[in-house]
Amino acid sequence: METPPGKEGLTILRRLLAYSEKVFQLSKTVIAGVVDRRPQPRIPTAIIVKSVAVLFWARMGSLNALEQTAHSGFFQSWLGQSVCSADSIGRVHALMDAEGLRRGIHYIYDRLKRNKALPDNRGMAIAALDGHESHASYLRHCPGCLERTIHTGKTERTQFYHRQVTLMLLPGARPGCKPIRLLLDHEPQRPGEDEVATALRLLERVIGSYPRAFDLVLADALYSTAPFFNFLLAHGKHALVVLKDERRHLYQDAAGLFACVPSQEGTFRC
Ligand SMILES: [Zn+2]
Fold it and tell me: Rounded to an integer, what distance in angstroms lies between the CA atom of residue 63 and that of residue 112?
């Protein structure tokens, strides 16, 4: 478990919050747009979202670590009150509406675009698709859990886990700055579904909300399937996917094109 931020960490955190409020109006636009399904909330949703934003930014590692810093002066000034219990934060997050969060991310994207902070990467707007596992447990599970059998010695146990596909924007760097990595959206993988099907559902939604945010999608070898390429072609996007030996159809198609299309000279940086 990571420890709460020290004095230097708090200074950086305060600067980060001040910057986010100034450039993105974090509280007024991004956080205020997030709601949850409690009929008569006693704790405003914004308090919960603001607490957890700090949990991630300070890399505290767990809700219990956050709870240990609940009464600090930092939270009194950022929230106007103490942090709620770990239980309340978990419960409210389970009822939170993802649409409000997505609108918040879209607002941040729009601001970054307007501020010219998302330049093309080597002449193209690039996004990367990837599958991530967020957590796994033998004991706790929910209706959205995926299941797998783990063999340890002679015993077999059912493990529950969550996996999601994320789409991250990979713009180029502005002079003198590190490039921004912006997570546009993610989609949970459903029981009985493969990762490509999850990714297509994600892309359908993201291309609808961000039609011109990227021209090229990067993905690993798992995605070298016909449905994936056909989907991107139909939406006017390019794909860059690792091809492995067992999937040779695309190789053969490409090799057929090499024979009748003259090659063009190019230069590449290594
Ligand atoms: Zn679950």
Answer: 30
Q: Is 174 exposed, middle or buried (0-12, 13-18, 19+ CB in 10 A)?
A: middle
Q: 62 CA to middle of ligand 1, Å?
A: 17
Q: Can you read off the two tokens belonging to residue 95?
A: 């009822």
- pTM, full prediction: 0.86
In this predicted model, what pLDDT tens digit does every residue of 109-129 receive, in sequence order? 999 999 999 999 989 999 999
- Taking the C-alpha atoms of residue 65 and residue 215, their distance in angstroms, rounded to an integer, is 41
45 CA distance to ligand 1 middle (Å): 22
Which of the residue ranges 127-141, 143-157, 252-266 would you say has the lowest mean pLDDT?
252-266
Q: How many angstroms does the Cα of residue 72 sit away from the middle of ligand 1?
A: 32
50 Cα–ligand 1 center, Å: 24
CB 189 within 8 A of CB 164: yes
Supply 220's token pair.
Answer: 């690993």
Kindly list the distances between the CA atom of residue 96 and the CA atoms of 32, 47, 212, 225, 245, in Å, as whole numbers in the listed order: 13, 13, 28, 34, 44
Q: Is the sign of the CA dihedral 19, 22, 24, 28 positive or negative?
A: positive
The alpha carbon of 27 and the centre of ligand 1 are apart by a number of angstroms equal to 30
Tell how far the Cα of 139 is from the centroid of ligand 1, in angstroms. Answer: 11
